[in-house]
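S1.2 Input.
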Amino acid sequence: MDRCRRMLDVSLVLCLLGGIASLAVTAPAGAAAAPDSRVVSAAANGQVSVDVNAGTEEELVSVPGIGKSLARRIVEFREKNGPYRQIEDLMKVQGIGEKNLERFRPYLTVGKAR
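S1.3 Output.
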């Protein structure tokens, strides 16, 4: 009886995990395509993280506080000067100071350039 109970518990857990996994990979009809996982990733707390060396303008706009024009300047700076080496390099972009950098920091990563 104890063995049957454990098997039932394991089956229930696997079923729940499968359901959760299927929710993570399905999107409602008409939803936008998922961004490249090398560029945008979700942290354990569900927070989105964008790679400043590979992210597009559209992906950078997903970061709270980054609008279209700032995203364009981030990408243009990267294209003109090469990849960002550290997150603090973003302060070289017009419109990003210490306060903005600290606000964006939780949402950005610095990976290898494409």
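S1.4 Remarks. The helical segments are 2-25, 57-61, 68-81, 98-104.
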